[in-house]
Amino acid sequence: MADPKFKIRKSSNGEYYFNLYAGNGQVIATGETYTSKQSCKDGIESVKTNAPIADIEDLT
């Protein structure tokens, strides 16, 4: 099984977004769209920083 990874993509409107892929190749998260590639990279860094400490809020 491969390591998880972020992939940056460009949408049809020219904005950037990322997908987070699990080791099995499945998309497990998608970021919002960003007007610059650097902002997209900053979004990835935010996920890396905040996800390990995020609480789970079950609204069901």
Question: Which key terms come to mind for this protein?
Answer:
60 residues; alpha+beta; Double Stranded RNA Binding Domain; three-stranded antiparallel beta sheet; 23% helix
Can you walk me through this structure?
This protein is of the alpha+beta class and 60 residues long. The protein has one domain (5-50): YegP-like (Double Stranded RNA Binding Domain, 2-Layer Sandwich), CATH 3.30.160.160. It has one helix spanning 37-50; strands at residues 5-10, 16-21, 27-30. Strands 1-2-3 form a three-stranded antiparallel β-sheet, with helices on one face. The radius of gyration is 13 Å and the shape is globular.
In short:
By secondary structure, the protein is an alpha+beta fold.
Secondary structure elements and pairings:
Blueprint: E1 5-10, E2 16-21, E3 27-30, H1 37-50
Antiparallel strand pairs: 1-2, 2-3
Overall shape: globular
Strand content: 25-35%
Question: CATH superfamily, called what?
Answer: YegP-like
Helix content: 10-25%
> Mean pLDDT across all residues, rounded?
97
Number of helices, where a helix is a run of at least 4 consecutive DSSP H or I residues = 1
Number of strands: 3
What is the quaternary state of this protein? single chain
In terms of structural class, how would the helical and strand content be classed? alpha+beta
Order of helices and strands: EEEH
Placed side by side, the strands forming the largest sheet appear as 1-2-3
- What integer value in Å does the Rg equal? 13 Å
Level-2 CATH architecture: 2-Layer Sandwich
**How many angstroms separate the termini?**
33 Å
The CATH topology is given as Double Stranded RNA Binding Domain
CATH class category name = Alpha Beta
Please tell me the total number of domains. Answer: 1
Q: What's the story with the biggest beta sheet?
A: 3 strands, antiparallel
Q: Are there runs of 5+ residues with pLDDT below 50, and where?
A: none
